[in-house]
Amino acid sequence: xxxxxxxxxxxxxxxxxxxxxxxxxxxxxxxxxxxxxxxxxxxxxxxxxxxxxxxxxxxxxxxxxxxxxxxxxxxxxxxxxxxxxxxxxxxxxxxxxxxxxxxxxxxxxxxxxxxxxxxxxxxxxxxxxxxxxxxx
Length: 136
Prior knowledge:
The chain is α/β, with parallel strands linked by helices. It has a single domain, classed as Cytidine Deaminase, domain 2 (3-Layer(aba) Sandwich). The radius of gyration is 14 Å and the shape is globular. It is built from 3 helices and 7 strands, in the order E-H-E-E-H-E-H-E-E-E. About 20% of the residues lie in helices and about 45% in strands. A 7-stranded mixed beta barrel has the order 1-3-2-4-5-6-7.
């Protein structure tokens, strides 16, 4: 099992973004560093797509090159994506597996009116998701 280092500060930031979107879903990018199995999140960014259909998670990086260039200048890389799910717990589905690329983290936060109730992270390995241990 791999470990994803995700600070309390970033958890609170994600909670704020999720609360502002509630009861809608929100999604975005995880920026950080990966080295020898050590994965650490340094920043979360919300990605907003006006044509996004509720319940149909889709994260398209329209400005992928621009994001990559800015991220590299800051000494970071895209290490995964995050998603909030209002009022439900979630394990990635087969359709979500086809949206993800191997080697990236997929962090899912369950959100209620009171805030984040659960956060879990997954990593796509070959053809299946494996849960990552979240470390503060």
